[in-house]
Specification:
This protein is mainly β and about 300 residues long. It contains one helix and 20 strands.
């Protein structure tokens, strides 16, 4: 099976919606009796970051408009058979496209005795993305950039959220980490003819990105569009869904910001499946960083 996509040669060096770092507070030196402020704390230092690898995938359905027990036709025209098998040719239409993601996030609080010359500092969290202009089959869909994430790519917190202040007696250190995905696949193996007993196997959908654009393999469930023909169920927490055939003209900066905020919200909600995952035990979509807060994101649209 082809490996998951990690674009290594993006067509652009990185895009964001501001072009510069967001406003910081508490950066001016504190002066006491004419002497510059200098203190070893202890300090409360809070950081937050999120990065994501993404790929847009199609959900499709047969484009036939006529079904019956005596005839199968596409657009009212009987379909030719394929060889001696008599299997009809089937065309498909793209109903919509959706994002498959692998999200990494970290929330951390540390206690520091380093010396700083300001009494506090806050840096909002911003994002840059690195968009691929083509999918793994070489298909292009228009220009990528600050207004379009394209068919695949990644984004990262540049810079990450950073907040420093003096340590308080009620403070505690913390470390929360997420490596999650927004889909899980289930395959059932039935035991005996007619038996309702079955053994299930689960895999994170991120592992199937390599064949996410499979075409022309016959009629299957809607989830066949993500290459999961051998699996009978897929759960996907879809996001950034776009109707019909994909082009980069469907995107805009507000959509990108809203989608990244949506992912951050799900990080704080702890609503991702673990990744990678490969087990007979059904996983819960409860992976995340409960202290992650999208109010720390900074956008200048």
């Amino acid at each position: 099976m082809p490996p998951a996509i990690y674009p290594t040669n993006p067509t652009v060096p990185g895009y964001n919606l501001t072009g510069n770092q967001g406003p910081a507070s508490g950066v001016s030196g504190c002066v006491s009796s004419g002497v510059p402020f200098s203190c070893s704390g202890p300090w409360f230092i809070e950081t937050q970051s999120m990065e994501c690898t993404y790929q847009r995938v199609p959900f499709f359905s047969p484009s036939s408009i006529h079904w019956s027990l005596g005839e199968f036709s596409i657009s009212g025209t009987p379909t030719p058979a394929l060889g001696a098998s008599g299997v009809p040719r089937v065309d498909f239409r793209i109903d919509s496209t959706h994002m498959l993601v692998n999200v990494h996030a970290v929330y951390q609080v540390t206690k520091s005795y380093d010396i700083y010359n300001t009494s506090a500092f806050t840096q909002p969290q911003q994002f840059q993305w690195f968009a691929a202009s083509a999918d793994i089959y070489g298909n292009t869909y228009g220009a990528v950039g600050a207004s379009a994430l394209g068919p695949a790519g990644s984004f990262a917190s540049i810079p990450k959220w950073y907040h420093r202040r003096l340590w308080q007696s009620t403070d505690v250190t913390a470390f929360e980490y997420l490596d999650g995905c927004n889909g899980i696949a289930q395959r059932r193996s039935y035991i005996g003819a007619g038996s309702e007993q079955h053994a299930a196997h689960y895999k994170s959908i991120f592992q199937f990105w390599g064949n996410a654009f499979e075409r022309g393999r016959g009629i299957g469930p809607a989830w066949a569009s993500v290459g999961l023909y051998e699996y009978d169920f897929v759960g996907v927490a879809t996001g950034y869904s776009l109707p019909g055939k994909y082009t980069t003209n469907q995107e805009n900066p507000a959509q990108i910001a809203n989608w990244i905020d949506y992912l951050g919200y799900r990080v704080g909600l702890a609503a991702f499946w673990p990744n990678p995952y490969d087990s007979e035990i059904e996983p819960d979509d409860n992976q995340g960083c409960p202290s992650y807060d999208i109010s720390r994101h900074y956008w200048a649209l």
